[in-house]
Amino acid sequence: MYISEIQCQKLDKILSAFGDGEYLDINLVTAIEPIERKANGLIEILNGRGLITRIGDSEENVLPMILLLNPVADVFMDNGGFTAEFRRTSTTNHITINSTGNGNIINTGDNNEINNTHS
User: Fold this and answer.
1) Ramachandran assignment for 117, one of left (phi > 0), alpha (psi -120 to 50 degrees), beta (any other)
2) Residue 10: pLDDT above 70?
3) Fewer CB within 10 Å: C terminus or N terminus of the chain?
4) Which of 91, 56, 51 has its CA nearest to residue 72?
5) 101 contact partners, CB below 8 Å, separation of at least 6
6) What CATH code would you report for 5-90?
7) pLDDT, position 100
8) Residue 100: phi, psi to the nearest 5?
């Protein structure tokens, strides 16, 4: 699933809204994303990644009453969260491969794009 940079920022804001606490009232989530269906989608992404647990789901409400922050979320946010993950995966790295003519190949870069040059 593709998540846009704006959605990544909203996901990070939800995780940051926990502050030092373990629980988050759903009203803080709807302040970040007021459309309930979209807020629920963001919550599902967080839940699917194991970062939060939904508490107080009911058939009458689309959103849970409370979110519980899982310990792994702290590590995830310490490493930049969704926004940093988005930027890492969006960056194009270049590879330049130089051939010496003797069958030797020198890789002078990373992944994603390959430029072939022959000496």
Assistant:
1) beta
2) yes
3) N
4) 51
5) 118, 119
6) 1.10.10.10
7) 64
8) -85, -5
Place of tokens 């009232």: 25
pLDDT digits (tens, 9 = 90+) for 17-49: 999 999 999 999 999 999 999 999 999 999 999
pTM (2 decimals)? 0.74
Domain regions of the chain by residue span: 5-90
In 3D space, the residue among 95, 99, 97, 96 whose CA is nearest the CA of residue 110 turns out to be 95
**Dihedral sign of CA atoms 115, 85, 62, 57 in order:** positive
3-class secondary structure, 22: coil
Let me know: does 98 contact 108? Beta carbons within 8 Å: yes
What tokens does 70 get? 């899982």
pLDDT in tens, 50-103: 999 999 999 999 999 999 999 999 999 999 999 999 998 887 666 666 666 666
